[in-house]
Each structure stands twice: as C-alpha cells, then as structure tokens.
Amino acid sequence: MNCLEARIVKDGVVKEGNVLKVDSFLNHQMDIDLMNEIGKEFYDRFRHKPINKILTIEASGIAIAYAVAQQFHVPLLFAKKSKSINIAGDTYTAEVESFTHKNKNTVVVSKQFLSKDDRVLIVDDFLANGCALQGLISIVDQAGGTVEGIAIAVEKGFQVGGQVIRNLGYHLESLAIVESMNHETGEIVFRRKEKE
Amino acid sequence: MNCLEARIVKDGVVKEGNVLKVDSFLNHQMDIDLMNEIGKEFYDRFRHKPINKILTIEASGIAIAYAVAQQFHVPLLFAKKSKSINIAGDTYTAEVESFTHKNKNTVVVSKQFLSKDDRVLIVDDFLANGCALQGLISIVDQAGGTVEGIAIAVEKGFQVGGQVIRNLGYHLESLAIVESMNHETGEIVFRRKEKE
Q1: Alpha-carbon distance B180 to nearest alpha carbon in chain A (angstroms)
Q2: I need a labelling partner for A186 at 20 to 30 A (CA). Which of A14, A137, B67, B75 fits?
Q3: pLDDT at residue number A85
Q4: Is residue B23 part of a domain?
C-alpha cells in the first residue's frame, strides 16, 4: 500500500453513490508533505521520459501538478475551465461534455505556452469518466506536442475514464485505483498490480 | 530589486488600461523555481508568527500558496469561488462584490477545515481592489480564527485594495508593489520601502 492509498484508508470518507471524499488532505485542504511524496513517486515513474512541461486543469489539479513540476524543474501550465463560448483567438480550446452531468465545459490554454516542441506530462487529482483529461489531451494534440504520460492521484477504476485512456495507448499511472467502495462499511478496495 | 520584481521587469507585459500580464511565469504558466523562491521569501517575513494554516483562493493563488505552505509544513486550504447562492449549510461563505466588474462572487470554505484555533496566513497572487481578499478575511473571522498575516505576490499600488487592508491593521506583505505602469514604453515603477 503506497502513501496515498494508506491516507485514503485513514482519512477518506465513502459516501452513498460511489462518492469518495478526500477533501481533508487532497482537494480542498491539502497535506503538503503528502503532496510532495506523491510528486516524488510520479517523478520516479516518469523520470526516464524527456518531459519539459507539466499540464493540469484548475483548480485542485494545480497542487499535485506543483509537487510533480518541482521534481522535474519544468514549468507548470494549467488549463482554465470556461463556461463561455467566446474565447479569444490565441487559445487552444476543447469542449468536453460531462458523461455524468451532461453539461459542457470549455477547457482553455493560451497558444503562447504550448507548441510542437513540448513533451508534456498531464497531471490531475481525480480520474473518473475522464472528460477533463480528454480535453487536455486534445489541447496538447492541437499544439502538435507530445503527451509523454498521464499521472493521476486517484482513479475510480469502476468508471470508464482510465480504460479509455489506456485503450488509446497512453502511459497512464494512477497512484490509487479504487476498485470498489462500500458506504455502509466504509471499506475501500484498491486494484493491485498483477505482480503484487 | 527582489526576484519577483526582477522577473516582472524581464517578462511582464504592460497592456493598455493598467493591465499587467504575468501569465508566462506567475498565473497561467508557472515557473516553479521562482515560486519556491517566493515561498522562502514569505517564510522569512512571517516565520516569527504562530501560523498553522495557509488559506488562498482558486485558481492561480494555489501555486504560490503551495510554495509558502511547504516552507511552513502546514496544511493548505483553498476557498472555492461559486456563482451559486445555494451553498450547503456546513460552509463558511462570503459574498463579495467586485469593485471593477460590479458582479458578485461567493467565496466558500468547508467549516470542517477552519476553526477558532486556526492562525492563518492568507496568500494570493494578485491584490488590486482586494475583493477576494476581503472575502477570505471574512471567512477566517466567521470561523473565529486569527489572520496572522497576508502575503501577496503582486500588488497594484495605485488601486485601493492594499491601502484598505493596511488601514484595517493587517500585516500585509506584498513582494512587488507596482506604483505605475506605462503601456507605451513598457516601463514599470515599483514602490520602494523608505529605508531603501
């Protein structure tokens, strides 16, 4: 059990409807020492790649992305979520529809900061159905850059997002993959790698 | 000239209407090594205070707040901006009206993470008219906590925000206070301390 899985077991709260609350240490209040450990773990998993930029999406992704970026000593770029359709022309935009909420969100990055020379590690705190992530991949593609990998703190293994991304051939590393949760007992089952 | 002032002179862009673009290193793409230097500088200025929590507001405040929090080894809490009036009952909320845009924003923090025992350093990237900051102060007050200080990266010294906060008696430290800007020449004048 890694540092994040252990912390989820200790402080995560399972709510009805497959909701996992980790807002005491991950995405509202943040334990910076844990974040830094997560950053080091992702550095170990991706250090062999020629990564020159970290890309995430506001808001809670920024903290984990910071932890990773300071290991790589590369710039951190965050995409903005916008409800507006009228975006200035000097941006890459992706319109992503939420599978769960059925609403549309526009994800925006200034063209100034992403180009064909960029070798990008995408970082986010959560992966469920993967809509935001698909938008970030689309934006790197629009820039002609390369997605070198995707680093996710918590993946909901029982939703489609992770499988879609792996099927597309991306190198996705999720630090904690939740296989199932029980809100009555509070039990959380993590996916184990085959070698374990 | 400190590290942030020097970087603003080098890479900041002055636009018409007293707009200062620092999105290549501070609030869209972020230079993590610069952020870490800023974090250390604020630690030096506030280390004598019994700070046990860093509070900021999404989204771009999170990165600087991270840099500060990892110096203090205390949790980072970020307030969420919400357009919705219907907020769940277990949150502190502040409704702040923008002086510039005349729109209202609701600033929200879960009650779980802020109490009368908290001694808070508020951190943000920008201070102009100070609406968001006033909301954060109100939230710490609602919790019965103490605002030990306020750390701002860039203050627009020609707008009212900083003066209001200082008049109220708060210990406010802004790393770069822009006194004036000229979009035709690109010149930026910083406020100097009296001793300099």
Answers
A1: 26
A2: B75
A3: 55
A4: yes
With an 8 Å Cβ cutoff, are A78 and B28 in contact? yes
How far away is chain A from the Cα of B53, in angstroms, using its nearest Cα?
Answer: 10
Residue listed under structure tokens 């680093």: A151
Place of tokens 């702040």: B96
Is B113 in contact with A28 (Cβ distance < 8 A)?
yes
Residue B196 lies in a domain: no
What range defines the domain where residue A94 resides? Answer: 3-190
Per-residue pLDDT for chain B (196 aa), expressed as one digit of tens each?
A: 999 999 999 999 999 999 999 999 999 999 999 999 999 999 999 999 999 999 999 999 999 999 999 999 999 999 998 866 555 569 999 988 876 667 888 999 999 999 999 999 999 999 999 999 999 999 999 999 999 999 999 999 999 999 999 999 999 999 999 999 999 999 999 999 754 4
Report if residue A195 sits inside a domain.
no
Averaged pLDDT for residues A112-140: 96
Q: Of B33, B62, B74, which is closest to A63 when you measure between CB atoms?
A: B62
DSSP letter at A172 equals E
A111 is a domain residue: yes
Token pair, residue A140, equals: 């790197």
Determine which of B32, B91, B103 to mutate to test the interface with A (most A C-beta atoms within 10 Å).
B32
Q: How many structural domains does chain A have?
A: 1
Q: For the whole model, what pTM was predicted?
A: 0.95
Nearest to A121 by CA among A44, A191, A178: A44
Give chain A positions within 8 Å (CB) of B68. Answer: none
Do the beta carbons of residue A55 and residue A80 sit within 8 Å? no
Tokens of B89: 């009952």
Supply the CATH number for residue B172's domain: 3.40.50.2020
Q: Which residue of A has its CA nearest to B71?
A: A32
* Pair A175, A41: CB distance under 8 Å: yes
Is the confidence at residue A86, as pLDDT, over 60? no
Contacts of A67 in chain B (CB under 8 A): 66
B7-20 burial code (b ≥16 CB/10 A, e <16): bbeeebebeeeeeb
Q: What is residue B151's predicted lDDT score, i.e. its pLDDT?
A: 98
